[in-house]
Specification:
By secondary structure, this protein is α/β, with parallel strands linked by helices. It has helices at about 5-10, 20-25, 45-55, 70-80, 95-110, 125-130, 150-155, 180-195, 250-265, 270-280, 285-305, 330-340, 375-390; strands spanning about 30-35, 90-95, 115-120, 135-140, 165-170, 195-200, 225-230, 245-250, 320-325, 345-350, 350-355, 365-370. The strands form 3 sheets. It has a 7-stranded mixed β-sheet, with helices on both faces.
Length: about 400
């Protein structure tokens, strides 16, 4: 017996598929500095576990399918603190931002319809779209100009009668780009004029640097019926394992259909929602020192990369990722070589090849995504090792 044909077509994670190489390296006694995945080492606020421990729960029963109401109330209050007009009824709790994105693609598109996405994009967008036969159509951006969006004429030329939505993360994963208010306004106007949805992945909203701020699509009040906002506690509060996300929209048809999906999977875990509420109730000042720590890490990494011979890496404005164009023949071969054939003082680094973050074939072959989620000492050491590796790599170009 064979599994379904479409199951064979599903994408394996290009971020995680190199993990076996890293595990083998660790068995050989090699210390690996993980620059490949956005798993912060920032401490999860203690209020999460404190709230869970204090929970007076005699029976761990099913929660409501749209999520525990006190958590939805806290998320609504969080949105209002940042001047986004989302009420409790506009919010549904999901199993991570991943489920919210899957739902958003399903709710906006019928099979064979298209979503425009700036490439390179979070590679799981493709994995979220494929099971529903939703087509990801790329808006190509390039490292040479900091991954800025093309002009309106170029964007509109990509729209067909199958286009149903524009999806993007802001600040961006994997690029770290922060789209300007003018760019958000331009995309909003395009969505209005061409009858499209906006799927706004805003899970890195608080992490902008150099005085920048992320403009939420939720602030575009004239298109709120077209906006679907995806959020998560994973990166915002360094609580990736909690798997608590949310989907917010003023569009009643979208929210009614989202609840049907919620009912089909029953509910989100109760204890995690209790902990997540405590996170959203934190004072907004919580983010100030966290943002400063990430900015310091970014500066260490980017300053080091820009000094390396043959490396191109613009300074990202947000999130905690950067894409570096390397002087190598193939970034995936280089990433594997780092784990199988290279070490400095029994240490090496792990990077994420970017080819599969693009939809256009052949792009990103010499690019890697680097996550600055390590402490400053480890990050500096990782950059030292990477520089030595680039000089020693047999496939250097």
């Amino acid at each position: 017996m064979k599994a379904s044909k479409r199951s064979y077509d599903l994408q394996a994670s290009p971020i995680r598929k190199l993990v076996p190489y890293a595990n083998e390296a660790k068995k050989r006694g090699i210390k690996i500095y993980h620059l490949n995945i956005g798993q912060p080492d920032i401490e999860t606020p203690k209020v999460f576990m404190e709230a869970v421990k204090k929970a007076d729960v005699e029976v761990l029963a099913y929660a409501d399918s749209n999520g525990w109401e006190p958590l939805r109330e806290s998320i609504s209050k969080y949105y209002k603190r940042i001047n986004l007009p989302y009420e409790v009824e506009d919010i549904i709790i999901t199993n991570g931002g991943s489920e919210a994105l899957q739902w958003a693609f399903l709710l906006t598109c019928d099979p064979g319809e298209e979503i425009l996405v700036p490439e390179p994009f979070y590679t799981n967008y493709r994995g979220f779209a494929a099971p529903y036969d939703v087509v990801i159509k790329p808006i190509t951006t390039k490292p040479d100009d900091g991954f800025v969006l093309p002009g309106r004429e170029v964007l509109e030329s990509l729209i067909t009668d199958k286009t149903r939505a524009i999806a993007l993360s802001n600040p961006g994963n994997p690029t770290g780009v922060v789209y300007s208010k003018e760019q958000v306004r331009m995309l909003s106007d395009i969505a209005r004029d061409h009858n499209l949805f906006i799927v706004a992945d805003e899970v890195y909203r608080e992490f902008c640097y150099d005085g920048k701020e992320a403009t939420s699509f939720g602030s575009m009040t004239d298109i709120l019926d077209r906006v679907i906002i995806v959020d998560s506690v994973s990166k915002r509060f360094s609580a990736c394992g909690a798997r608590i996300g949310s989907l917010a929209s003023k569009n009643r048809d979208i929210m009614t259909a989202a609840l049907k999906l919620g009912q089909a999977r029953l509910c989100v875990p109760t204890l995690e929602m209790i902990g997540a509420k405590a996170l959203y109730d934190l004072d907004p000042d919580y983010f100030t020192p966290i943002r400063e720590r990430y900015e310091a890490r970014r500066n260490i990494m980017i300053d080091a990369l820009q000094k390396m011979d043959g490396v191109l890496c613009e300074r990202p404005g947000g999130a905690f990722y950067a894409i570096a164009k390397l002087p190598v023949d193939n970034a995936e071969k280089f990433a594997i070589w780092l784990l199988t054939d290279f070490q400095v003082d029994s240490k090496s680094v792990m990077v994420a090849p970017v080819e599969n973050f693009y939809q256009t074939p052949g792009m990103g072959m010499d690019e890697v995504r680097l996550a600055y989620v390590l402490n400053t000492d480890d990050l500096a050491e990782a950059m030292r090792i990477l520089e030595i590796a680039l000089k020693a790599y047999p496939g250097r170009t």
